[in-house]
Amino acid sequence: MEIEKLTALEIREGIIRGDFSCEELVKKLYKRIKVVDKDINAYLTLCEERALEDARKVDEKVKNKKILGKLAGVPIAIKDNICTDEIKTTCASKMLEDFIPPYNASVIKKLKEEDAIIIGKTNMDEFSMGGSTENSAFKITKNPHDLERVPGGSSGGSAAAVASGIAVLSLGSDTGGSIRQPAAFCGVIGLKPTYGLVSRFGLVSFASSLDQIGPITKSVKDCALCLDVVAGYDPKDNTSSKSQETISYLEGIDAGVRGMKIVLPEELLSQDINVEIKNAIEESAKKFKELGAEVEYIPLSVFNRGLSSYYIISSAEASSNLGRYDGIRYGYRTKEFKDVYELMVKSRSEAFGEEVKRRIMFGTLVLSSSYYEDYYKKALKFRENLSREFKKVFEGYDLILSPVTLDFPSKIGEKKSNLLEMNFGDVYTSNVNLAGLPAISIPCGKSTNGLPIGIQIIGDHFSERKILRAAEAFLGGAKV
Amino acid sequence: MKITIDEIKKISSYAKLIFKEDELEKMTRDFEKILNNFDTNDSLNLEDINLDNFDRVNSEFRKDEIEVFKDKKKLFRNTKSMREKNIEVPKLIE
User: Fold this and answer.
1) Is residue A149 part of a domain?
2) How many domains does chain A have?
3) Is A366 a domain residue?
4) CA separation for the pair B71, A120 (Å, rounded)
5) Residues 46..75 of B with a Cβ closer than 8 Å to A: which?
6) Which of A7, A164, A14 minimizes the C-alpha distance to A75?
7) What is the distance between the alpha carbons of residues B24 and B32, in angstroms, rounded to a whole number?
C-alpha cells in the first residue's frame, strides 16, 4: 500500500474489500508524516492517539458489517482555523496559541459522522491573512515541489500536506483565494464553494462575508465526495443557504463538457502575467475546445479591478472580527499592565503578527468617519456591481476560465518585505469571493523548472456540479 | 488621497494597537497606495447601486434560539481564571 498515492475513494474501497485495515493505514500515514513533515512543516498539531482510536472504530464497523460512512477511514488534515473539539485551534497565532475549542465546527461534525479520521491541524498564515504561509507565528511551510519556495497561502499547510502525500485530503478556507492559490502552487485541486453552501459555524472569522470552507484533494472525484459531505444548510450559520436541495456532486461528474459554453476574459491574459502561465492557460482553453466545449475570448473589464475593494472590505470585517481578542476573556494576555487600556493594547500588540495588525489598522481606517463614505461604502457598491457583471456573463456562458496566479511561488523570504506586492497576488481570485461565486483550481501544466501551474474554473452561484464536471473532463479522471 | 501619520496614530488608538514610528510611516505609505489604487481602478460610477436592495443569494434568516452548553468546565477551559461560576478578570481601578 502506497498511502501517498491513494485517493479517498480508493481508501474507502480498500477498507471495504479488506485490502488493508483502517488502523494499518493510519499508522502508516503517521510513519510517513514523521519523516516527510520534517522538511515540509505542514502540520501544527498531530492527533495520533485519537486518530488511531477512530480508525479502530471504523475497523469494528467493517468487522460487524455495519454501514460505513462516505469517508470511512479517510485521513483528513484540517486547517488550523477550523474548530476541533479538544484539539488545539491556533489560527497560527500567538493570540490563540493555547486555545482548545469546546466544540466541533459543523464541517468537522459532518466529516466525523461519515467516519473520516482527523489526523492533524495544518499551518496557515496567521488568521488566514497572507498568501505564503510565512505569516504563521510558529513555522514556515515549504512547497513540496521546491523546498526553497513557499506553498502559497493562507491554506499552505493543507495544500502542502496533500501534495506531499501526508494527508489524503484536507479542508482549507478561502477568503480571497486562500484555497485556490496554494492548490495551484502545490499542484493539487482546491475548491472554493459558493458562499453559503458550506457552513462557517466553527470557522474562526477573518472576513465573514467572504470566508468559505472547501476541500483540497488529489482528484476531482475526491473533491466532489468531500463536498457531498460538508455542503448543506446549517441552522447554526445564518448565511448558510436553504435554497439548495441535497444533491450528489459525484453524480454525473463524468458527463464531460460537450456543449458547454466557456469564456476567457481577454483582460486576464493582458495583465502582468508570467509568460509560462499565460501559455498554459491558452493551451488549456484549446484543450477544452478539443473536449467539445465552445470556448470564446470576450472583454470583461471588471476582472482588471476589484483588488482594492477586496482589501477594503476584508480588512474592515477583520478589524471588527478581531476586536474580540482583548486579553481578558481568553487568548494571550500580557504580563504587565497598569490599567485596562494598557492590558488590551499590550496583549493585542504583543500577540498579533505584523500582517494581522496592518489589516486591523487598514480596516479601522476605512471604517472611520472620514473614509467610510468614500471608500468602504463605495467598495460595497463596487462589489454589488461586480456581482451584476458576473451575472450578465453567466446569462450567456456556463463557465469562466482564468489563471489562478500571476506568477510562480516566490522563494521563502523573498516577498515578505513587500507585503503589499504579495497581496496583489490575489488579483485573479478575490473577485470570485466578492461575488460569492464557486471556483476550482486544478493543475494545467508545469513550468520549465518543474513548478506546477493552476487554472481556475469559475461558475455561477451553486454551479459546483458543472465546475466539477469540467475539471474532471480536463484532467481525464487522473489524480495529481 | 493623502493620509497623514497623525491620522494613522489616531487609528492605532481606536484599534488598540501600538507601533513604532517607522512602522507608522510605512503603514501610512502603504495605505495611501491602496486607496489611490481604489480611486483609479475600482471607483466606477456607481450612482445607480442601492445597497439597501438586499437580493443576495443568501437571504434566509433564522431565529436566535438559546442552546445551553452543558459542559461548563469544557466551555471555560480557555479562560485565564475562574471564581465559582464567573470569569475572573484582573483587578483594575481607573
Assistant:
1) yes
2) 1
3) no
4) 24
5) 46, 49, 51, 56-58, 60-62, 69, 71, 74-75
6) A7
7) 12
CB within 8 Å: A241 and B74: no
Catalytic residue among A128, A170, A178, A241: A178
Residue of A nearest to B93 (CA): A339
Q: What are the grid coordinates assigned to A226, written together?
A: 468531500
pLDDT in tens, A383-433: 999 999 999 999 999 999 999 999 999 999 986 554 455 556 788 999 999
Taking only the tens place, the pLDDT of each residue in A249-281 is 999 999 999 999 999 988 877 778 899 999 999
Beta strands in A140-246 (DSSP E): 169-174, 189-192, 212-217
Q: Identify which of A330, A371, A385 has the shortest CB distance to residue B46.
A: A385
Q: What's the domain range around A409?
A: 1-300+400-480
- SS3 assignment, position A408: coil
Give the count of beta carbons closer than 10 Å to the beta carbon of residue B93.
5
Output the CA torsion sign for A173, A134, A428, A450.
Answer: negative
Do A184 and A404 touch, CB atoms closer than 8 A? yes
User: Which site among B1, B22, B38, B52 would you substitute to test the A interface, given the most A Cβ atoms closer than 10 Å to its Cβ?
Assistant: B38
